[in-house]
Amino acid sequence: MCLKDMHLPSTAFSPSLLIGNVEIRNRVALAPMSGVTDLPFRMLAWRFGAGFVVTEMVASRELVGNAAESWARLKNSGIDPHIVQLAGREAHWMAEAARIVEANGADIIDINMGCPAKKVTGGYSGSALMRDPDHALSLIEATVKAATVPVTLKMRLGWDENSINAPLIARRAEEAGVKAITIHGRTRMQFYNGKADWDAIGAVREVVSIPLIANGDVDSVADAHEILRRSGADAVMVGRSCQGRPWHAGVLAGAAAHPDASGVARIFAEHYEMMLEFYGVEVGLRTARKHAGWYLDRFAPELPASEKAAILTSTDKGFVRDSVVAAIVRSGGAAAREEIAA
């Protein structure tokens, strides 16, 4: 980000938005990211003003089969609305899972047709569903029929550059009863390479009247305004730019201010303790490593690689927490001041 972003109007993001009968408090959302947006991360993002947050994707068949990981991803704690993302490849299991998540407090159910990960697409889920629109629609129809709460859809532009079918699927999804659509401006085969095509999202805007949410490469307030302008979308979803700064969606929405270096340190310490409590110390330490690494990369980039490695591989929870806090505070600002000014 740059200084000029601080002077851009945020009014485009402050009005609430209706998804079905559910009111969303502002128009900058935190994207669901598997392995990232667990309950501790979502709670912080929500506290700092994200318009809405979405669970990590919950595998539908595994949830119905009582898999512990799927139930852990379903948990909520005071976040309203509670939006649960379901993934799957069979209509029966999507419908059964939809009934379960609604019974367990989901206010909105989001269908994952955007994940590009090989372990997901290899199982014919996520963005692989875009290769067979008829089959994808059977999952959408089953989920909508099974749920009484609004159902939304997140997808990419298509499988590859030769099969850009998001407008077709979006139009059919709206006809099937989907209440909002999120488009990541890349194909599955792009993964996260290149630049998201914000203009291409506009082709979906032309064929649907339900809320459209634009996603992909939004890092700054300027980016957020530009993706809305070029796509015609109603709201913005941010993902990777929030790694290491769970407050970022709220900042883009104008609902929170950038923390200073000491504020970043305090947020990290709280985030870290939340992860240890949520997962237990042993699993929490492993889970926290990537988050600690993102904080260090953003706010203490000058930390020697050997010191960073020692912190991230330590099994001493107090040492990890105190070392990351000290590195951020010691950085004092080169990175933190740049981030705050940005």
UniProtKB/TrEMBL annotation:
Flavoprotein among keywords: yes
Active site: C115
Binding positions for FMN per the UniProt entry: Q85, K154, H184, G239, R240
Free-text function comment from the UniProt entry: Catalyzes the synthesis of 5,6-dihydrouridine (D), a modified base found in the D-loop of most tRNAs, via the reduction of the C5-C6 double bond in target uridines.
Domain of life, per lineage: Bacteria
Primary gene name: dusB
The entry's keywords: Flavoprotein, FMN, NADP, Nucleotide-binding, Oxidoreductase, RNA-binding, tRNA processing, tRNA-binding
Catalysed reaction, written as an equation: a 5,6-dihydrouridine in tRNA + NAD(+) = a uridine in tRNA + NADH + H(+); a 5,6-dihydrouridine in tRNA + NADP(+) = a uridine in tRNA + NADPH + H(+)
Enzyme class (EC, first level): oxidoreductase
Needed co-factor(s): FMN
EC number: 1.3.1.-
Family membership noted in the UniProt record: Belongs to the dus family.
A Pfam family per the record: Dus
Name this protein carries in UniProt: tRNA-dihydrouridine synthase
Ranges of residues in domain DUS-like FMN-binding: 30-302
GO molecular function: flavin adenine dinucleotide binding; tRNA binding; tRNA dihydrouridine synthase activity
